Amino acid sequence: MRVIKNYLYNVGYQVLAIIVPLITSAYVSRVLRPEGVGANAFTNSIIQYFILFASMGIGYYGNRQIAYVRENRKKMAKTFWEIQIVKTIMTLASFIAFEVFMIFYTRQADYMWAQSINLVAVAFDISWFYEGIENFKVTVLKNSFVKIVSMIAIFVFIKNPSDVTLYIIVLAISTLLGNLTLWPNIRRDLPKISYKILNPWQHFLPMAELFIPQIATQVYVQLNKTMLGGMVSETASGYYQYSDNLVKLILALVTATGTVMLPHVANAVSKGNMQKVKQMLYKSFDFVSALSYPMMFGLASISLTLAPKYYGSGYEPVGPAMMIESIVILVIAWSNALGVQYLLPIHHQRDFTVSVTVGAFVNIILNVPLIHTWGLYGAMWSTVISEISVTLYQLWAVRGLLSYKKLFSNSWKYLIAGIIMFIPVFWMNQNLKDSWLMMGIEVIVGVIIYGVMVILLRAPIVGQAKELIANRLKK
User: Fold this and answer.
1) 232-243 as b/e, with b when 16 or more CB fall inside 10 Å?
2) What is the per-residue DSSP string for 35-102?
3) What angle do CA 356, 362, 367 make, to 5 degrees?
4) Is the pLDDT of residue 108 over 50?
5) What integer pLDDT is reported at residue 144 of this predicted model?
6) 59-63, 235-239, 450-454: lowest mean pLDDT where?
7) pLDDT in the model for residue 417
8) What is the mean pLDDT of residues 377-400?
9) In 3-state terms, what secondary structure has residue 2?
10) What is the DSSP string of 290-320?
11) pTM of this prediction?
12) Contact of 29 with 286, CB cutoff 8 Å
């Protein structure tokens, strides 16, 4: 039950973290127009490279290391402060590098300096600690409050197309404040220790191992927006981000399992219970498959009308882009289960690193010809193909460790249910009245069709749901 509670907490925050800008984006897209939205997307893609350097793979590494030692409070405190020292030094070095960069980069200086607040916020992000001790409640509640305040601030202060800098500042400060709110709990959750026993640099090389896959991941997360801004237009970069926002909102419901399961699996690994690790992975893989198939087909079925209706006129290209990108919901769900929930906890960092490096390499190779030929849609196909390559490599990497039969034994059921759901919903979306009410009906129809199909096909997710409900009723 603890894993389920943490999953729900993490899903809640991940959804809120995306839903707040999603709610405000319907307003901001109309106020700032595609040009302002594109300027924010393009400059944010640049600052993310410096944030990547400052983060230094600490998210996954810190989460895992804290999970290993959480039964010993003194070791846990020592580990926390050692990792945090490295992170602070790396953030300082990254900010110095950013200042040097700005000497030579004179384009949109105001936007770039406003984005740099996001870089400062990295030093104060200790969410990895609370993820490691599986206390998701504190991070969710405090950050949720800050997100809601930032949403209010956007509606109050962002009034015209010239407010792009102010919009960037509001978003960045909300991130900084969200990170700062976690610090008061540290005095309660960690005992005092002497700084003399700290040895922070022992963590540097292990962090670097996870830094490489983070670099590779960011390549095909941020490079597409950067290259679209340079090769096509900043507006195209904005279209990419707005498509990505909606897809990532759906994806957050699935990938939240990775953050929750990583410390849980790591703790089982530290106790040598590898059979339990495999069983958790099989169950988790089936769970994310059951969720991601309907989300992929569902989003694809309504995307063509959802994007322009939500963002307003001028954003019509976002719809087809979203339909293409919806494929990554399933692909990333699988790679998240295999990579984050299995390869990292069992110390197969090399396989994880190679997988995302392959994805980045594929993305770089495909970006130039595909963006040159098809612009925004070329970037989307490049993203999809690169994510597929990541998953395929991870499947190859676990070939001697896991059973493909157990991983995919029920996947065909979810695939059939998803296709049968997609056909009528897509027809309704294209042929019936285009309104929010009708779109809501389409979503409800899709949920009902998928639910009925998985019951008829006797998918295991049905049994798991019944078991969960029965356990809750007993309590």
Assistant:
1) bbbbbbbbbbbb
2) HHHHHHHHHHHHHHHHHHHHHTTHHHHHHHHHHHHTTSHHHHHHHHHHHHHHHHHHHHHHHHHHHHHH
3) 125
4) yes
5) 77
6) 59-63
7) 96
8) 94
9) helix
10) HHHHHHHHHHHHHHHHHHHHHH-TT-TTHHH
11) 0.73
12) no
Angle at which helices 73-104 and 204-231 cross, to 10°: 30
Which amino acid appears at position 119 of this protein? L
Q: What is the mean pLDDT of residues 245-271?
A: 69
Average pLDDT over residues 217-232: 79
Residue 445: other Cβ atoms inside 10 A? 15
Which residues lie below 8 Å from residue 58, measured CB to CB, with a gap of 6+?
A: 83, 86, 87, 128, 207
Collapsed DSSP state (helix, strand, coil) of residue 160 = coil
d(CA 133, CA 255) in angstroms, rounded, equals: 19
Helices 109-122, 164-180: crossing angle, 10 deg rounding: 10
| Of 136, 153, 151, residue with least CA distance to 9 | 136
Q: How confident is the model at residue 472 (pLDDT cuts 50, 70, 90)?
A: very low
Please give the pLDDT value at position 11. 59
Q: How would you classify residue 248: left for phi > 0, otherwise alpha for psi between -120 and 50, otherwise beta?
A: alpha
Q: Is the dihedral of CA 353, 354, 355, 357 positive or negative?
A: positive
Angle, CA 25 vertex, CA 23 and CA 29 arms, to 5°: 145
Amino acid at 390: V
Cα gap 25→19, rounded to integer Å: 9
**pLDDT tens-digit profile of 352-368?**
888 988 998 899 899 99
Which tokens sit at 264? 């849980």
- Amino acid 439 reads M
Are 143 and 17 in contact, with CB atoms under 8 Å apart? yes
444-448: long-range contacts, CB 8 A cutoff, minimum separation 24: 446/294, 446/297, 446/298, 446/301, 446/421, 446/422, 447/294
Mean pLDDT of the chain: 85
pLDDT at 134: 72
Best CA proximity match to 297, nearest among 103, 450, 88, 117 = 450
In whole angstroms, give the CA distance from residue 468 to residue 1: 9
Helical H segments across 375-435, by residue range? 376-397, 404-408, 411-431
**Structure tokens of 475?**
């309590």
Which of 70, 375, 442, 408 shows the shortest CA–CA distance to 233?
Answer: 375
What is the length of the chain? 475
pLDDT confidence bin for 460, thresholds 50/70/90? confident
Sign of CA dihedral 231, 233, 237, 242: negative
